[in-house]
Amino acid sequence: MALDGISIHALVDEFNTILLGGRINKISQPEKEELLITINTASGNKRLLISANASLPFIYITEDNKPSPLTAPGFCMLLRKHIGAARITEISQLSNERVIVFTLSHLNELGDVAYKKLYIEIMGKHSNIIFCDEDNRILDSIKHVPSSVSSVREVLPGRDYFVPAQEGKIDPFSVDEGYFKNNVLKKPSSISKALLSSLQGISPVLANEICFRSNIDSDVACASLFDEHKDKLYHAFVITLDDIKNKRYRYNIVINPTTDEPVEYAPITLTMYEDSIIKEYDSMSIVLNQYFAKKNQYTNIRQKSQDLRKIISTHIERCSKKLDLQNKQLLDTEKKEKYRLYGELLHTFGYQASSNDKSITVLNYYDNSELTIPLDPELSASENAKKYFEKYSKLKRTKEALDTYVTQSQNELALLESIEAALNIAESEQDLNDIRAELSDYGFIKKVQTNKKQKSAKSKPMHFIDDNGYDIYVGKNNYQNDELTFKIATGNDWWFHSKKMPGSHVVVKSNNTELPDSTYEYAASLAAYYSNGRDNDKVEIDYLQKKNVKKPAGSAAGFVVYYTNYSMMATPSLKHVRLVDDKSC
């Protein structure tokens, strides 16, 4: 979700507690639309990270530093000139809008106290950081918005600053029962849309949460509500806002239990996510730091993997087409036995044919049925027989060659699909480098020259520990799968893999003991999660002791065979396991 007015409200309270009265001692612009401001406060230096990026705008206090460009951009230089040593005298929110105002005092060229304002607008694609003088005249902004882009408001130096009025919307903290029931719930729309269109800073998530707490469907039309429903909705609305108004915050992130990805965040508990994991934190900044760091990780990896994804999908498409063509050609070679039979029968009964006959009907002595054989009237019976034997020989040679080619294409397709599965679970730059190296080794992309340091870098399989204390290892690519199965695992360890589906090798170190039933289930859930069936409700998992897993000679990395195994259905999940960061094996 984007930062809504309620989250901004919690942030402003936090900033007033930590940053108010602090003095700015450093301003940098690490990214094109991002500011990092270091503030000297009573509790030490604090870093305020602000992003006006259209796809991921945010503002929060962070402990992380970011490298600055060698040459500071013009907007950053202007801020350094005017407020490089300014003191923060006020931090406020405009109504319940997604706008934070920092009022800053500094000494001007004459040594007199002057004031400037820094407006942080967290409004999706309209997000901006705008620097104004004390009369609210724009001095500059991190993003310029001319009239050709917006006819509602220009954001350019010299223009007056204002926030476009949102018609029909009022501050939710000023809403009483009469207005809520007679205005908000009188709109010709669903309840959630009525809340969104009537109240400032209310996000779809918060609107749905209010409806959930009332036990009323958010898509229900306002016109269908009875008085008792309106009472419930108003009661839930008051309780929700009362927690914010009285600073009873519960900073939390909602985690998808299957994918471990952050779903939502809020300064209040989102009770509608009953089946999700709720992680609580000490401040809104920590929530945003964790949430956006995770989101950035997934977003960046997806962006950086686009070239690899395109290469793999192109090769899979080509290989699939090649395999289809080879299978069709293989199907055609099934006619070879018919041509061989024609040749044999013509050798035996060809004397019955007359010149210029276009066919001959003879007895098929293999099944005692009559068989009509087409003939070329320009050729004799023996010449027709020779022609059929030549067709038979050609198709026989073709089939022998195609059997080899089909096997090669099937192995190539399986390899590409396994690399694609590894790309789907990639979580870091190193994972992408491993996949790039594998594609290079098998000739799908050009070999990239690397220095010795890069060559020596080698990633390890993921290491988990389950609730029973057993070590479980998961390979993230084919090379890791090979290492895990044939170097790390020992004979009595248990090996898991998704059935007839690309996925990771998963090994449970048994330590020569009998595993609890639950550990089998946890390992199977991991194998399902790190497979192409991650989005399925259930995935069939094969499992057996590692000593029964074999690698055919000359086979590609990650390719194994086994003939005796057990199977179980598992739900893709990371529950009951925790990742060990040391990556030791």
Structure commentary:
The chain has helices spanning about 5-20, 75-85, 175-180, 190-200, 205-215, 225-245, 285-305, 305-330, 335-350, 380-425, 430-440, 450-455, 480-490, 515-530, and strands at about 25-30, 35-40, 45-50, 60, 85-95, 100-105, 115-120, 130-135, 140, 250-255, 260-265, 275-280, 360-365, 370-375, 460-465, 470-475, 495-500, 505-510, 540-545, 565-570, 575-580. The protein is α+β, with helices and mostly antiparallel strands and about 575 residues long. A seven-stranded antiparallel β-sheet has the order 20-19-17-18-16-15-21. Helix 8 (about 305-330) packs antiparallel against helix 10 (about 380-425) and helix 9 (about 335-350) runs antiparallel to helix 10 (about 380-425). The longest helix has about 45 residues, at about 380-425. The model is unreliable at about 450-455 (pLDDT under 50).
